[in-house]
Amino acid sequence: MGSERTTYLTMAEAWALDDLIRHTWTEEGRPVGRGLLLKVFAVIREFEARRNDPCPPEVLPIALSEDECWAIDYHVRRSYVDPEGYRVGRPLLLKIFGLLLEMRNQEDLDSLRLAENAVDIDSPDVARRLEQWREHLNDEPPENGGESPPERPQPGD
Fold it and tell me: Can you give the pTM of this predicted structure?
């Protein structure tokens, strides 16, 4: 849960998060709201500082943790329209869904890598089990009922 992913917010999306997320919000007992809002405040301040630039940014980056993404998902409704009339709920949620899926996919990949590396092929236990398996395979009767395979005629016979 410590990893973060980056997405890009419009000014309207940043203000929507400020409107909707409460600083007291916790996720499974962990405080999330205050840290998330500090990130949002930084994005809003950057938008405001660059408002009069010849080419002000349309979006700015924000790095979000999984807990912060779940907090956004909880607070933002798909139909949310900000006070200026911009429909920001659906586009913002789609970004958050993408981040959550990316995080979960990475978590699944990491667990597969751990499973691959979990077996130490040089351990004595693995070598012993492998040898037992080989003995078991050698002790099994042949599939043709124990008969020897038919002999093939040799060239020149």
Answer: 0.66
